[in-house]
Amino acid sequence: MKYTKPALTIPQQIQQLKQRGLLITDIAEAERQLLNISYYRLAGYWWAMQDDKQQHTFKPGSTFENAVSLYNFDRELRLLVFGIIERIEIGVRTRMIYQLSHEFDPWWFTDPKLFKDVSAHQRTLESIRKEIARSEDTFLVHHRQTYNTDSRLPPAWKSLEVVSLGNLSKLYGNLKSSVRSKDRIAADLKLVNQTFMPSWMQTFTQIRNICAHHGRLWNKNLPGRPKLLPKPPAPWLTWVPPVTEHHRLYVHLCCMKYMLNVIVPGNRFTQKLSGLLSKYPNIDINALGLPSSWQNEPLWQS
């Protein structure tokens, strides 16, 4: 079947929404919002308001204003989470550069002998080469000019500073189990050993990419599933969500908070998240997987 629906003007979009049962009290404000936030971006937030997903008809009492409020909440949530992941990323990056450069040499990340899957390592390394080549950071420009006869990539403390979290995650996950630094890094982050950290880094990468591309976190079925520690050495949860709930954001936020407590002691993640939820009291926290007593958990009080 071919797609035959025409492009709709903003007044036509509003008329269609009203015909489907969405309450719009301020037409001028709705036009302004649709001019700045696309119809299909907002559709992700009014999707849950529809009682018939095929006909796109809305439940009684559904309002355009609530959809915009959800969008604004999600936008602020993304900014908060993105900042948290940034702190974690830099903390992990610094530990990898330091530990592995001292265990081996400054070019450890290029050595195929350290990695389990050599083909995967070569693909990661090629991606890293492209990231370095694109970078115009002053320290890399200076390195190219000063060491122009050295055909190697810059050392880890230069090269890996411009590498994405995704490639850092792939480097760590692909390291051989015999690499001592792999356990040292995990233990330093209170993750006990190398068993758990790869899945945490993978899911953080996925969520970071959602945030960077302005995707939706609220009511999102997340693809990653972090492998949880059975007996965490640092404050954790008295109620751990079952595996069937790990597609929701809450368990991922818990993993972020756990690592952030090591990297940034005394952080204000709890207060910022609580403040955001208070700012938008109509938000259904169940759509994020948050239990009503989440702030009472030892993890969120530390």
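the 2nd protein, sequnce then structure:
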Amino acid sequence: MSSTPAPGPTDVATPAISSTDVPAEPHRHAHVEVSRLPMWVAVALTVVSGALTAVQSRINGELARRLDDFAVAAVISFGSGLLILLVVVAAWPAGRRGVGRVREALADRRLAWWMLLGGLAGAWFVATQGIAAAVLGVALFTVAIVAGQTLGGVVVDVIGIGPGGRRPLTLPRAAAAILALAAVGWAVSAQVETAVPVLLLLLPFSAGFAVSWQQAMNGRVRVAASSALAATLVNFAVGTTALVVVLAVHATSVGWPDSMPTEPWLYAGGAVGCVFIAMQAGLVRRVGVLVLGVVAGQLSAALALDLLLPTSDHAVGIATVGGTVLALAAVALSGIRRRARHASPEAVRPVR
């Protein structure tokens, strides 16, 4: 944390966005296109990113089930994503410049080292996919994720650790958050009466809460790097490192899988993660960390997957369908324009 004076009741001890801080010119232009996106386009893109999250949960959950090993599945997902990003960054000069800007931001203390650790939350998220998604079913897994994500988004936005600074909890945002939680409760109500291990829901719930912090940290790195690609690379490098350590410990006690599945789609989780994490890193400033569009995308895609390509014994009931529709209503409510002014251009105060 910083060594600045202790925060007051409305302050936080983390670096904040200030309306008087103006970024250097080379760092400003890269954010103009995202900032000028119409809000409805930004929200639509967050829905797509949320849908991809549900798709990744299905892929990684099924891979872990086939391997009977969540740690190997998680390393394959994160590690393959890291390899893809390393190739892209090596081939794209703008990506290499973004990585260089991250180093510069760390050196001049515009970026704190702990802001690079968003990948730890991503690693936990992918691990819970392998542990719980195949058991719970992707729809039930996803509603637990989005419950934690919705609450975490409120906390992160109000505290102001995301790249857009503090976002007051206005009436439409508060109502939308409540409506989203009601949607989650409705969607899960019918399933908890079955043989589903309810305590297992705590894993994706905690991962969802952590994802809100991950989005904020990745957004801060993107600001410093002027590159969503560089922020995504940092995310995957940190997450892969953490998962390799977990795998090394896990393998000493349970050993390694006897064989690997041959279906190529089971190894696509990393590529899917590259896409949606880059999208969220780029969009977080425009729409805030409380991204109810992500929630709607996750729920809708999870529902479609369980209806069209079921892999668990848990039937999709009217409660799950109704909860998804209610979540979509929450997205519409969250899109109401705020009267408060938009956040100032991204500039992070030096961390002292």
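The chain is about 70% helix and 0% strand. Residues 46-334 form one domain.
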